[in-house]
Amino acid sequence: MTAQASIPTPWLMPSHLRHIQPEWLVSFLAVADTGSFSAAAKRLHSSQPRISNHVAQLETLARSLLIDRRSRPVVLTPAGEVMTEHARIVLQALDDASAALAAQPGQTVNSAEAG
User: How far is 5 from 85, CA to CA, in rounded Å?
Assistant: First the structure.
C-alpha cells in the first residue's frame, strides 16, 4: 500500500474553492507566464475576453486579487504568487492522475457513455 498524501477531502475544502475549473488555472498561469492577457490568449489559442473571464472567475472564487492589471506587463499580487505555485501543483496532479489511469489495464469508459 502506498503512503497517503495529506489532501483535503472535498467536504472539508472551503466551499468557495470547490468550483475552480482547471481551464481557469491554465489561463491564469498563461497570464502569469507571459505578463499579458493578449499574449496568454495567443498562447492558448483563445480570445482575450475568455482569458480575462477565467482569471476574473478565479479571483472571485479565491476571494483575492491575483493580478495587478495597472502595470504593463501585468504583475502578480502576493496572492497571485501563492496561487501560481498551487495552480501548477493542481494541474500537475491532474496530469499525473490522467497518466496513471491511462496506464491501468481493464475497461475504459467511452466519454459518451460516462456523460
Answer: 18
Considering just the CA atoms, what is the radius of gyration of the chain in Å? 17
Q: How far is CA 102 from the centre of its chain?
A: 21
Q: 78-102 vs 48-62: helix axis angle to the nearest 10?
A: 100
Residue 68 belongs to what H/E stretch? strand 67-68
Q: Which residue type does 70 have?
A: R
Return the exposure string of 35-52: e unless at least 16 CB atoms fall within 10 Å of the residue's CB, then b.
Answer: ebbebbbebbebeeeebb
Per-residue pLDDT of 16-29, as tens digits, reads: 777 899 999 999 99
Question: Residue 53, Cα to own-chain centre: how many angstroms?
Answer: 13
Please state the pTM of the whole predicted model. 0.79
CA 38 vs CA 7, 43, 48, 69, 78: distances in Å: 35, 9, 5, 12, 22
